[in-house]
Write a structure and sequence with these properties.
The complex is a heterodimer. By secondary structure, chain A is α/β, with parallel strands linked by helices. Chain A has two domains: about 5-115 and about 210-230, Peroxisomal Thiolase, Chain A, domain 1; about 120-205 and about 235-380, Thiolase/Chalcone synthase (Peroxisomal Thiolase, Chain A, domain 1), CATH 3.40.47.10. In chain A, about 35% of the residues lie in helices and about 20% in strands. The two termini of chain A are about 15 Å apart. Chain B has one domain (about 20-135). Chain B has one helix at about 20-25; strands spanning about 30-35, 40, 55-60, 65-75, 85-95, 95-105, 115-125, 130-135. In chain B, the strands form two sheets. Chain B has a five-stranded mixed β-barrel with strand order 4-5-6-8-7. In chain B, strands 2-1-3 form a three-stranded antiparallel β-sheet. Classes of the chains: A alpha/beta, B mainly beta. The interface between A and B is large, with 39 and 38 residues.
């Protein structure tokens, strides 16, 4: 089953203003992904370039990045599912390898959001909603997730403090992650006292825009064993799509695209939620992490807050989640985020995490969501 | 006429469902229904992918709905700066139709409660723009 492996994973530091071009960002991630591998650029058979195009000044970045990394004349193309673009890239890389078209594929995600003002970035995020029916009301990503948060609070008694505690945890781990943009530890008071952005989400409930790139190298099993001593096997892949409109959502207390993707990934991997040793989940907002606990089956619906209350998602807890600081600490350069999450799990499973290492982790999970729950991607990896 | 004057900022104009705006000008918020298979659509669709018919019919969203969820947006994106704060909400209406719109300015934030009764009504905005919003039902 698991005859496709990840052999390398790298990322740049995520920052507010990187001061370099997207091709150079991509190079830095590419360079780190190849560290220690018995492979050169010419061994890469194809590249998949992932970003959210509305933030890009460069049209058709696949050609540009492929030239800069000297991947020509190998095929290169572009995929997009907003914030989960590079998880979608991994899915396609897996398929290309599995189908026998290529032996080694690079999945490169990037975003340079500092080229836009944050209001312009928010306008583009607004156009990530249905532009006829919902964008004209001023719907943004935080507002969409805030409506999920409110519904969760009304149904299950979730509080703003529960949400803040997710940030307390993630800021704790983010403080020691050299790749993270936000490296200050935040107290519950800091978070609770921050500006209300879109109720009930405050400033510190939200991740920040960032610049950055990530790169994941995927290889056929037999080839992988020759490239690295510790291949990380792709055990399960799940992907699902929900409605573009908020109006079309049947469930407001969880993301159905994540639930469906998780179901597929667990089935393919032949594992259950309790088998997962470490997880990276898409905490674009604090509430998103609580929803993820439930959508992934780490907690029953409505009981996700119990995990953060009990510190069960800390590094020595029952199911450590986002012990690299998550998107909340690292920042969220849209197209690079999925690859960064994958990199963290690869390092955890190899026992190479420098921030906080989960002891003896063998099975890891990545949950990467595009838009306001439009695209759900769950990936299960094994040492 | 299309969607050029719809909402605070409109991003596109042409659509087969542009009659929605004509009805809105006449004071009606409309949805569509496929007469063949009976499926209702909000936002309205001009086509029915369930049975591949293009012969949908319009009907008015009437009656009272319930507030499903909401958020008070304090920072609007570009083009929406002057609207903030505004309240985005989802309302559930008869026949399983769910609608996203803003809550009317005449509803005070402290009066908002999950499950509260709502109606959806057209809203004429300054400079000839038009939208719809939720009022207390």
């Amino acid at each position: 089953m698991a005859d496709v492996a990840i052999v390398g994973a790298g990322q740049t530091a995520f920052s507010r203003n990187c001061g370099v071009s997207i091709r150079e960002l991509a190079f830095d991630a590419f360079q780190e992904s190849l560290e220690g591998l018995d492979i050169t650029t010419s061994d890469i058979d194809a590249s998949i370039i992932c970003s959210a195009p509305e933030y890009d000044k460069q049209r058709s970045p696949a050609g540009l990045i492929s030239e800069y990394l000297e991947l020509t004349p190998k095929p290169s193309f572009y995929v997009e599912t907003v914030c989960s673009s590079s998880s979608t890239g991994l899915r396609i890389a897996w398929s290309l390898v599995k189908a026998g078209l290529h032996k080694v594929v690079a999945v490169i995600g990037f975003q340079k959001m500092s080229e836009l003002s944050s209001r312009d970035a928010a306008e583009r995020m607004g156009r990530g909603a249905d532009i006829i029916w919902e964008s004209p009301f001023g719907l943004t990503m935080p507002a969409g997730y805030a409506m999920y948060a409110r519904a969760h609070m009304d149904k299950y008694g979730t509080t703003e403090e529960h949400l803040a505690k997710v940030r307390v945890k993630n800021s704790h781990y983010g403080a020691t992650n050299p790749k993270a943009n936000y490296r200050k530890e935040l107290s519950l008071e800091d978070i609770m006292g921050s500006d209300m952005i879109t109720s009930p989400l405050k400033k510190f409930d939200c991740c920040a825009n960032a610049d950055g790139a990530s790169c994941v190298i995927v290889a056929r099993g037999d080839v992988a064993k020759g490239i690295t001593d510790i291949p990380i096997w792709v055990m399960g892949l799940g992907a699902a799509t929900d409605t573009m409109t908020m109006a079309g959502r049947k469930l407001l207390t969880g993301l159905e695209c994540a639930q469906e993707a998780a179901k597929q990934a667990y089935k393919m991997a032949g594992v259950k939620p309790q088998d997962i040793d470490v997880a990276e989940v898409h905490d674009c907002f604090t509430v998103s992490e609580i929803l993820a606990y439930e959508d992934l089956g780490f907690a029953k619906p409505g009981e996700g807050t119990g995990l953060i209350e009990d510190k069960a998602t800390y590094v020595d807890g029952k199911i450590p989640v986002n012990v690299d600081g998550g998107l909340l600490s690292k920042g969220h350069p849209i197209g690079a985020t999925g690859g960064s999450q994958i990199r963290t799990i690869v390092r955890q499973l190899r026992g190479q995490a420098t921030e906080a290492q989960v002891k003896g982790a063998e099975i890891g999970l990545v949950h990467n969501i595009g838009g306001i729950g439009q695209y759900g991607n769950v990936t299960i990896l094994r040492r | 006429m299309g969607f050029e004057n719809f909402g605070t900022v409109s991003f596109t104009t042409e659509a087969r469902v542009a009659d929605f705006i004509t009805y809105l000008e006449q004071g009606k918020v409309m949805a569509t229904r496929c007469p063949k298979c009976g499926v209702s659509y909000f936002p309205p669709k001009a086509d029915c992918p369930s049975c591949l018919s293009g012969e949908v019919e319009w009907f008015e969203v009437k009656g009272k709905g319930k507030l499903a969820t909401y958020t008070i947006v304090n920072y609007g994106p570009s083009g929406f700066e002057n609207d903030a704060p505004y309240i985005l909400a989802l309302g559930e209406f008869e026949g399983g139709l769910q609608i996203m719109a803003r809550l009317s300015k005449d509803i005070a934030p402290e009066d908002i409660k999950a499950g509260m009764s709502l109606v959806v009504v057209p809203l004429k905005r300054p400079e000839g723009r038009i939208s719809y919003e939720f009022k207390k039902g």
